[in-house]
Amino acid sequence: RRLCLLRRCSAAYMGTRAILPLLALLEVGLAFGGLSGDQGWHAVPLFRKPAVSTGQLELVEEGLNVLRAQTEPFAIVSAVGPTRTGKSSILGRAFFRGEHENIFEVGSGVTSHTGGVWIASQPVEVKVADGSTLRVLFIDTEGFSGVGGITSKTYEANLFGLVYLLSSVVIFNTMFPVDASTVASLNAHASHALSMLQALTDSGQLVQKAKPRLVWSIQSFNIYNLHNSGMAATDLLAALRNASRASGAGIAVLGGEAASSSTWLVERLFEQQELVTVRRPHASDEVVANLAKYNSTILSADYLHDADQVRAAAMHDLKAVHRCKEAGTVLTLSECTPQPLVGTDFVAQVSLWLKHGYILDRSDLELDTADEAETLNRLRERNRKWFDEQCATLNEELRTKFYWYREESADNAKLRDEAVAAVDKMMKGFHGAALSRLVESGVFWKFPGKGAMLVEAQADQAMQRCKETLDGTRRHMEGWTASHRATKATPAQELFKKLEAEAPEPSGGLSYKLVAEDSSCFSNAGGAGDIHRLHLGNGMTLEACAEAVSKKCECGRGFEHDKGNDGYCGCGMAGTPNTDCTESDDDFSYGSARYIMFNPACLNQQSEARKRALEQANAAAGGEDGGGALAAAVVKDYDAPKKRRQVCFDVYD
C-alpha cells in the first residue's frame, strides 16, 4: 500500500527525488517475485535473414535447439515493431531487469541493430494466475523499415506472420506520437498475417491454435497529452481502433487526423488488445541513445514502472503454445481446447509454417534493376538445359523399360503401358520441380513475379517438346520390339539367305545390307567381356566404316555403325560365334545399326589372316571345304550358356 501511494506522491511531499530509484528497485523486487531459474541467459538466433531482400527466412539450429529442449509446457512472448523504437530495451528492462537486462543487444546508432529473429537461450519461470509455474521464452526481432541492412516489405511481412504464429503474446512496440501511419502500419502487418494463414490453409496446413494476445507498447509517451485529453490508455486504444471516426480530444492525442483506410484487422487476429504507455527512460539524450551502457538504477522510476506494466500485461492470462483439438484456423479461447506442445513437436510445426506459409508483398515486384534482362536470360538458359536433361532422363527410362519388357506377353504389355504412364506423370511434374528450383535460387528473390512467369512458360513449352520426344520413343520402341521378336523367330540361316537374295548386284563397290537397328556386334562370350568384337574407330561415316571392315581381314561379315555415337565403327571377329555379329542376338544398343557384308575385299585376297580364320571356322564346323565351313560357322546355333546383359538406370522422383 505504501508503494501504491508513493507512486502518486510529488517530490516535494517525499522531501527528495533521490529516494525514487531506490523505491523503484524495491518495487521491481516485488514485481519479479514470480521469476526463478538459472540466470545464465543469452540470446541465440532463431531465424536468419535471407541473402536477398525478398528471400525466405532461414531456420537456425541454435535457436531450434532452445525450442527442442522444452519438455514441459511453455509460452512465447515476442516483440515486433518499427526499427529504433526500443524493442530490445523494453524486453530486457521488463523481463530480465538486473544482470541480464541487456540479454538482447541494444543499438546506439540510427541504423537497425537486431537482424533476423533472436530467442532467449532458456525460459523464465513465471507464476500464473492459478498458482502454477509456466516457462516463458522471449523473442526479439529486427525492426521494420530499418536502414543499413537488407530488408523488404516481403521480408517484414513474413517476419511478422511467423512471429504471430509462434507467439502466445505479441508486443507491438512503437514510438510516440501515434498517428494514421502507425495505425495503417499495424493494420498492414495484420493483413500480412492473414495472408500467411490463407497460404497455410491453401497448402492444407491448418493453424489450429487460439489467437494470441496483443500488447501495444508506445514508448517515449508524453503522459500529459493523455491527461490533457481526459483519456486513459483504454480510451486511446479505442480511438486508434476507430481512428476513421475519431474526433475531438482523440485527434489531439493521435497527433493529427488519424484515419484508417481499412478495417481494423487486429481484432480478427488477436484475442485481446491492451495498450501500455511507456514514458521516457531518462531526461538525458545521451543516456537514451546509449541505454545499454546504463543499468536500471539510474533510469526514470516512471519508465521502470511502465516497463512493469508491459510485463504485467504480457503475463496476464498467459497460455502455453498448443494445438486446439477443434478444427479451424486461429480460434478464440472459448472455441479451443488446448493441447500443450513440447519443443520437438513445436519445431516440426514451425518448419511447416516456414515452408508453406511464405507470402509475397506485391510492392516488391515493382523492381527496376539494370541487370533484370540479363539475369532473366541466364535463368532462361539454365532452365532450358535443365528441362532438356530431365526429358532425356525420362526418355532413357522409357527405352530401358521397353527393353526389359520386350518379350510378348500380357504381363509385359501391361508393364510397358505402366512405364509410359509413369514417365508421363513425371513429365507433368516439371512445373512444380522447376518452381522449387527457382525458389531456391537468388533470381526468384530478386524478380519473384517475372521469374515465376518465365518458369511457368518454359515448363509448358518443355512439356510439349518432351511429350513429342516420348511419343516418338514409344513408337520407336514398339517398332523395335516387334522387329526384334520377328528377327528372333527367324533362324539365322534363313535370315542371311533372304538378305543375300536381296543384296544388290556387285558393281565394283562394296555390297552390304542392314540387318537390324538398335543392335550392335556386342560380344560377351562366357562372361569374359567384349572379346569377339573389334573396335575400328570413331568419326566414320557408314561408307568409311564399311571400307574399313572390308580391308580388315580379322573382321567377319557382320559390322556395326553408330552415327550418334561419334560415328563408332566395329565388327565381329572372323572365325568366332560373333563373325556375323550374332553372338548376342538379344543385344539392344539405341541408335546403332548392324549390317552384313557380302563381298569384303579380304574374302578374295586370301591373306594369311583370312586363311587362319577360315581354318578355325572349318575346325569349329568339322567341314572340309573352306567356304562351306565358313557358312556353316555363320549359321550354327551355339548352345553355350550366355550371361544376360545388365542394364543400369537411375530412378528419379
Give a topology summary:
Layout: H1 2-6, H2 11-14, H3 20-31, E1 43-48, E2 58-59, H4 61-68, E3 74-80, H5 87-95, E4 117-120, E5 124-127, E6 133-141, H6 153-166, E7 169-175, H7 180-202, E8 213-219, H8 223-228, H9 233-241, H10 249-254, H11 266-269, E9 273-277, H12 285-289, H13 301-315, E10 322-324, E11 338-340, H14 343-356, H15 372-404, H16 410-428, H17 430-439, H18 442-446, H19 448-489, H20 492-502, E12 512-517, E13 533-537, H21 542-551, E14 555-562, E15 568-573, E16 593-597, H22 601-605, H23 608-621, H24 626-635
Parallel strand pairs: 3-6, 3-7, 7-8, 8-9
Antiparallel strand pairs: 1-2, 1-4, 4-6, 5-6, 10-11, 12-16, 13-15, 14-15, 14-16
Keywords summarizing the entry:
5-stranded antiparallel β-sheet, 24 helices, 9-stranded mixed β-sheet, single chain, 653 residues, disordered N terminus, alpha+beta
Descriptive report:
With 653 residues, the chain is α+β, with helices and mostly antiparallel strands. Helix content is 45%, strand content 13%. The protein has 24 helices and 16 strands. The strands form three sheets. Strands 1, 2, 3, 4, 5, 6, 7, 8 and 9 form a nine-stranded mixed sheet that branches. It has a five-stranded antiparallel sheet with strand order 12-16-14-15-13, sandwiched between helices. A two-stranded antiparallel ribbon has the order 10-11. Helix 7 (180-202) links the parallel strand 7 and strand 8. The longest helix is centred in the last third of the chain and has 42 residues, at 448-489. It is elongated and about 115 Å long. It starts with a helix and ends in an 18-residue tail after the last helix. The model is unreliable at 1-39, 107-113, 244-262 and 623-642 (pLDDT under 50).
